[in-house]
Design a protein that fits this description.
By secondary structure, the protein is an alpha+beta fold. Helices cover about 35% and strands about 20% of the residues. It has a four-stranded antiparallel β-sheet, sandwiched between helices. The protein binds uridine-5'-diphosphate (UDP) and magnesium ion.
Length: about 170
């Protein structure tokens, strides 16, 4: 089944200049990149993204981590699309705990556990299709994704202030 999944190269991945390596590893999947951008993660976005972990003791540190307070204040967000995208990407990423992850996986190769207990595992990938939908809708607007109708949309009219090149 063709499906889409959200990938984030986390601030530690960017700080360690791993973007190229990670994208090369992900290209083994032969999936299509259908959306990408660099994001400065607000507290609101960080907390919404990790809302399922809000009761965990490591949650406050996790929010600092994903906002880039320990590395660089940016994240690279991508949407991959294709056959079994969620499973293929998760498998190359490896387990959540970088010390348990297969050493040839992205997290096994590049992740670490900090002394304050956060898994700095350089990459996020959606766990299942429900989470992928929730996460893609959180990080991207419909027009930022080049294939249409991955999820239903509706047209709205809005007046916004925007910048243009001078
Ligand atoms: N995390 C952590 N300690 C844990 C579990 C998770 O620091 O015991 C962090 C880690 O960065 C992980 C993120 O929280 O990637 C989200 O956790 P989740 O359980 O959703 O794992 P994932 O889906 O990223 O493998
Ligand atoms: Mg998860």
């Amino acid at each position: 089944m063709k499906e889409q999944t959200l990938v984030l190269i986390k601030p530690d991945g960017l700080k360690k200049s791993l973007t190229g390596n990670i994208l090369t590893r992900l290209s083994e999947t032969k999936l299509d990149i259908v959306g990408t951008k660099i994001v400065q993660v607000s507290k609101e976005l960080a907390e919404a993204h990790y809302c399922h972990l809000k009761d965990k003791p490591f949650f406050p540190e996790l929010i600092h981590y994903i906002m880039g307070d320990y590395h660089k204040k940016k994240v690279m967000a991508l949407v991959y699309w294709g056959e079994d995208a969620i499973g293929k990407v998760r498998s190359i990423c490896g387990e959540t705990n970088p010390e348990k992850a297969d050493s040839v996986s992205i997290r096994g190769a590049y992740g670490r556990i900090t002394t304050n207990g956060v898994y700095e595992n350089v990459i996020h990938a959606s766990e299942n299709s429900k989470e992928a939908e929730r996460e893609i809708k959180l990080w991207f607007q419909p027009d930022e994704i080049i294939i249409s109708n991955i999820y239903p949309t509706e047209e709205i009219e809005k007046t916004i202030k925007a910048r243009r090149w001078k």
